[in-house]
Design brief:
With about 475 residues, the protein is an alpha/beta fold. It is built from 16 helices and eight strands. The chain has three domains: about 140 residues, no CATH class; about 80 residues, Rossmann fold (3-Layer(aba) Sandwich); about 190 residues, no CATH class. The strands form three sheets. The protein has a four-stranded parallel sheet. It has a two-stranded antiparallel sheet with strand order 5-6. Strands 7-8 form a two-stranded parallel sheet. The radius of gyration is 26 Å and the shape is globular.
């Protein structure tokens, strides 16, 4: 099976940063340990330190591309590194002396323990200092190379160009776009800032213009169709630019029973089981808090649309009042009075989704996939959002590409945007992409982001 990794293109800076920081962490710890003991440490420990540093740095946002380089951004970077060093030392102490703390045993620390502690503190301090310098240099170089916005030319009809600009409104930092009408002779002035030509292939292009586009392509300037441009630049496929079913068929990857699906299923079972075991104390505490607030039921079940459109049942921690839907089913909104006090915390930290891990174990859901919607809401969505049924090709997930790239959906407009990300995910499905979504989900949860709608449009799904 061909694996398309187009999402890597815009993450090359992060991938380079990951690799440098990881090996920097491993090498520094090995060097520091060797200088004390004249031998190398257990490499599992070195890899664990490198993994801790990279994952924690990613969650804190140390690897994101800086739009502006300033003294303030550098000071923020210093604070993040300092926080990572303190956090690492606390984790080290927690892991090494947890047994004595829990059981009130005599805390015996021999000379080697103190030496290992010194090695760790020196190592993580060096890692922080060098990582700060190297990542700052990468940010400066990246900014110098890409600070000038590259110009794209949209070649097509004016009405499509306006629709294209409306779609770009969802991406504030989009590149500069110029327009050339397909009804006029195609002539451009090549410049070093010209990135490429976006062609709406649904327009009728005459032979002379095709020859001109061919010559431009040969000169090293990119010529790309509209759908592929969104696929490459923003990792989404907006349905407004899909003209017919065949265009979508070409994009959707065949999801046959293959080794990737089997590995995905095994991963779903293993990871869900581990998460359930490790979060049992949280599940118990949350259950008590939900019951104590209003003496209502702890869990809440809903019917959702699953694989092939079949109805499945999902289970969640109840985050709304018992009679929240007495006036009918509706999307959640900002400052929703139906949500309980404990429910706001559960939603912010995504804890209300934890019981769905049992749905994953039983096979009706996956950890990663298009988020399942309620059938009552979908009846209206299907009339307003074209190609919505394409989501049914994959088993629904607790998290998905749409969830980590777009805020909480509370309107038909939001649904269309999320669908564009779902179609991209289905077109580029791979275990690598699932892994990226998994880590991005952890980042969202720990930062308590993405759980609120940004605006209210069509809040009542029952409106026509």
């Amino acid at each position: 099976m061909q694996i398309r990794l187009t999402w890597i293109n815009t993450r090359r800076r992060k991938i380079i940063a990951f690799i440098i920081d990881f090996w920097l962490s491993v090498l520094i710890y090995n060097y520091t340990y060797f200088s004390f003991f004249n031998s190398y440490p257990n490499q599992l420990v070195s890899i664990s330190i490198g993994s801790f540093w990279v994952i924690s740095s990613y969650i804190l946002g140390r690897y994101k591309k800086d739009i502006n380089i300033s003294l303030q951004s550098f000071l923020i970077s210093i604070l993040k590194v300092f926080a990572l060093i303190i956090f690492g030392i606390l984790i080290y102490a927690f892991i090494n002396w947890l047994y004595s703390i829990i059981f009130f045993d005599e805390l015996l620390i021999d000379q080697k323990d103190l030496l290992l502690k010194d090695i760790f503190i020196k190592s993580i301090s060096k890692i922080g200092f060098l990582s700060l310098i190297i990542q700052s240099l990468i940010s400066i170089l990246n900014y110098k190379i890409y600070k000038k916005k590259k110009i794209w030319i949209f070649y097509g009809e004016e009405q499509d160009y306006k629709k294209f600009l409306r779609e770009l409104n969802y991406h504030p930092n989009h590149p500069e776009i110029s327009f050339i009408s397909a009804s006029e002779p195609f002539k451009i002035n090549k410049s070093k800032n010209l990135k490429g030509i976006i062609v709406n292939e649904n327009n009728i292009i005459n032979v002379d213009d095709i020859d001109n586009l061919y010559d431009i392509k040969l000169s090293g300037i990119e010529v790309i169709n509209l759908i592929d441009w969104f696929d490459k630049e923003y990792h989404k496929i907006p349905t407004d630019f899909i003209e017919n079913d065949y265009q979508l068929i070409k994009k959707l990857k065949s999801i046959e029973d293959n080794h990737q699906n089997r590995i995905k299923r095994l991963g779903d079972i293993f990871i869900s089981f581990i998460i359930i075991l490790t979060t049992l104390p949280i599940i118990f505490i949350v259950s008590c808090l939900i019951y104590l607030e209003d003496k209502g039921p702890i869990f809440y079940t809903q019917k959702r649309s699953g694989l092939n459109g079949n109805i499945i049942k999902i289970i969640k921690f109840r985050s709304m009042h018992v009679n929240a839907e007495i006036d009918g089913i509706q999307w959640s909104k900002n400052n929703d009075k139906r949500i309980t006090r404990i429910g706001r915390i559960l939603r912010a930290l995504r804890i209300d989704e934890l019981p769905q891990l049992f749905c994953v174990l039983f096979g009706s859901m996956s950890l990663i996939g298009p988020r399942p919607e309620r059938p009552e809401i979908e009846k209206k969505i299907l009339k307003k959002v074209p190609y919505y049924k394409s989501r049914y090709i994959l088993k629904p997930g607790i998290s998905g590409w749409a969830q980590v790239n777009y805020h909480y959906g509370a309107s038909v407009s939001d649904t269309k945007q999320k669908l564009s990300y779902d179609i991209y995910y289905i077109s580029n499905f791979s275990l690598f992409l699932d892994l990226l979504i998994f880590f991005k989900t952890i980042k969202l949860v720990l930062n308590a982001k993405g759980y609120k709608p940004k605006k209210i449009i069509d809040n009542n799904p029952n409106t026509n």
